[in-house]
Design brief:
By secondary structure, the chain is α/β, with parallel strands linked by helices. It folds into 2 domains: about 1-100 and about 265-355, Isopropylmalate Dehydrogenase; about 125-255, Isopropylmalate Dehydrogenase. Helix content is about 40%, strand content about 20%. It is built from 12 helices and 12 strands. It has helices at about 15-30, 45-50, 60-65, 80-85, 90-95, 160-175, 195-210, 220-230, 240-255, 295-305, 310-325, 340-355, and strands at about 5-10, 35-40, 70-75, 100-105, 125-130, 135-145, 150-160, 180-185, 215-220, 235-240, 260-265, 275-280. It has a 10-stranded mixed beta sheet with strand order 2-1-3-12-11-4-5-10-8-9, with helices on both faces. Strands 6-7 form a two-stranded antiparallel ribbon. A hairpin with an 8-residue loop joins strand 11 and strand 12. It is globular. The structure holds nicotinamide-adenine-dinucleotide, 3-isopropylmalic acid and manganese (II) ion. The site of 3-isopropylmalic acid has 6 residues, from helix 5.
């Protein structure tokens, strides 16, 4: 019987509530692949910061390393600047374990209404490949003459041929397995004449190896417009770190809610730790009320199961989510219902057990 040891960082705000439900659902699904899970919870996040002056133990990356995967809720607190909390916990994880591929699906489930008019169920089905280790998030730069009226900040983007190529190649390889076989590249090479031109050149080179794939290249501003005008036309989308970040919040709301947006941060070397987390943040506006939609976290956990090669367990969760949404009975407030976080988790567990 395969046994997996999973690191869990619930983090801040609604991250705590939704991760709890995700763990519960994985426990229910694991027997379908004859798998067993043990969970190691790490108390890191902003509460830890208030006590210890840092977001996590000094050797936190080493402590995480030996696990089979990491399930993360969310990080961020209204009383601490986000660049401190996020650079103290989440972002170094993506870099240390070389989690170069951030996978973010956006699917319009039956039973969920898009804020865009007249979108039939399942008509929107895209998969965003977000570069996850460099680009605009390289965290290179500095401040000069801080706290004076001469204040200067330099923030540098880093684009490498290797970094561009591995995310673009991953997007093409995935597109080959999807019926529509199409990849859209998002760029801004009209204004960013170095990094984004390297991105475009790499895209052209990789595309030449995949003659069966239809391609388009869109400037980010145009892409934002087309995500609203014709979201159903997108299949696989590949974008830099920052563009992928922005477009996946947009894609999430186009298919109904941030509460449904799952994501996987996949280590390029499979021996390294991969991390599974919802796209959304700690949502301070609804934190502590027990009403956050846990489906994004639950679907992220299903992506973890797929990554761990537990296809039946993963599929059972996907189909439970589909069933719950199609029935429209146990719906969270962000989808127009009044079910609590826990009630939704319980219902998904029930549907998984009936699978
Ligand atoms: P957010 O994703 O937390 O919230 C955006 C909006 O969507 C809010 O109105 C929120 O209530 C709603 N929402 C999000 N998730 C929901 C869910 N599961 N159910 C129902 N409604 C949901 O984005 P924000 O407000 O920009 O960020 C809040 C904090 O989270 C900030 O500190 C930010 O830096 C951090 N953040 C962390 C992560 C992460 O840890 N991966 C991701 C994004 C933002
Ligand atoms: C996300 C988040 C993070 C990001 C933030 C919290 C640093 O918005 O995972 O989408 O921008 O990568
Ligand atoms: Mn984001």
């Amino acid at each position: 019987m395969p046994e997996f040891q999973i690191a869990v960082i619930e983090g801040d705000g609604i991250g705590v509530d939704v991760t709890r439900e995700a763990v519960k659902v994985v426990e229910a699904a694991a027997p379908l692949d004859d798998a067993r899970f043990s969970w190691r919870h790490f108390p890191w996040g902003t509460d830890y910061y208030f006590q210890h002056g840092r977001m996590a133990a000094e050797d936190y990356l080493d402590q995480l390393a030996p696990h089979d995967a990491l399930l993360l809720g969310a990080v961020g607190h209204p009383d601490v600047q986000d660049h401190i909390t996020l650079n103290g916990l989440l972002l170094p994880i993506r870099r240390r374990f070389d989690q170069a591929i951030c996978l973010r699906p956006a699917f319009l489930y039956a039973g969920v209404e898009s804020p865009l008019r007249d979108k039939p169920p399942e008509s929107i089905d895209m998969l965003v490949f977000r570069e996850n280790t460099e680009g605009e998030y390289a965290n290179i730069g500095g401040r000069l003459y801080q706290h004076s009226d001469q204040d200067v900040a330099v923030q540098t983007s880093v684009f490498t041929r290797r970094g561009c190529e591995r995310i673009i190649r991953a997007a093409f390889e995935k597109a080959m397995t999807r019926p529509r076989r199409s990849v859209a590249s998002i760029t801004k090479s009209n204004a960013q004449g170095y990094g984004m031109v390297l991105w475009d050149e790499t895209f052209t080179d990789v595309a030449a190896e995949f003659p069966d794939i239809e391609t388009e290249s869109l400037l980010i501003d145009r892409a934002a417009m087309e995500f609203v005008r014709r979201p159903e036309s997108f299949d696989v989308v590949v974008a830099s770190n920052l563009f992928g970040d922005i477009l996946t919040d947009l894609a999430a709301i186009v298919v109904g809610s941030m509460g449904l947006a799952a994501s996987a941060n996949i280590a390029i070397d499979r021996k390294n730790l991969s991390m599974f987390e919802p796209v959304h943040g700690s949502a301070p506006d609804i934190a502590g009320q027990g009403i956050a939609n846990p489906l994004a976290a639950i679907l992220s956990a299903a992506m973890m199961l797929e990554h761990l090669d537990l296809p039946h367990a993963s599929e059972a969760i996907h189909s439970a989510v589909k069933q719950l949404l199609a029935a429209g009975e146990t719906m969270p407030p962000d989808l127009g219902g009044s079910a609590t976080t826990e009630q939704i988790g319980d219902r998904i567990v029930q549907l998984v057990l009936e699978h």
